[in-house]
Amino acid sequence: MPQFPTINQVVYKDFDTLFDIHPVTRKLNVLTNVDAVVRSVKNLVLTNKGERPYQPFLGCDVRNRLFELNDGFTEDEVVENIEEVIGEYEPRAELIDVIANVRPDQNAVDVSITFRVINQTGQITINLLLEKVR
After folding, report:
1. What is the pLDDT of residue 8?
2. pTM for this prediction
3. What 8-state DSSP symbol labels residue 24?
């Protein structure tokens, strides 16, 4: 057995936060490698600061930016917040690019996050449309 994992081995493993049950084993589904990191990045982006108990600084407050006036700095603030939260709380992802496009007429922000999972080949791009919930 090699000392370091190869690309084909399971390196990262998280339980599915949707709490879906496997139909055969009747256990919680498990996300591995790329799927685990993608779910973690989405959760970090969609979490507001102070939303998680005992972790008041976790999150990036992107949804709170939807309620601010749309000026020229909103997109830059969203990009900076996402880069900061992924850089600090997700060491398994190597961030490549974050693009934010504010849509003032729809009260939404279109976010595209491109990253590479450590110990994996290829880039992953996540596209999120963040809009106000009434």
Report:
1. 58
2. 0.81
3. T
Instruction: Tell which residue, 56, 54, 51, 43, has the closest CA to residue 82.
Output: 43
Q: DSSP E strands: which ranges in 2-131?
A: 13-15, 30-32, 93-103, 108-117, 124-131
The pLDDT of residue 102 is 86
pLDDT recorded at residue 86: 94
CA angle 39, 30, 92 (to 5 degrees): 45
E-only strand ranges, 7-73: 13-15, 30-32
Kindly indicate the confidence band of residue 12, based on its pLDDT and cuts at 50, 70 and 90. Answer: confident
Residue 44, Cβ neighbours under 10 Å: how many? 20
pLDDT at 16: 75
**Contact indicator for 50, 63 with CB cutoff of 8 Å:** no
Longest CA–CA separation in the chain, Å: 57
> Smallest Cα–Cα separation from 67: which of 77, 58, 59, 57?
77
Distance, in Å, from the CA atom of 31 to the CA atom of 24, rounded to the nearest integer, reads 16
Residue 36, token pair as written in the block: 């685990």
How far is residue 100's CA from residue 112's CA, in Å, rounded to a whole number?
6
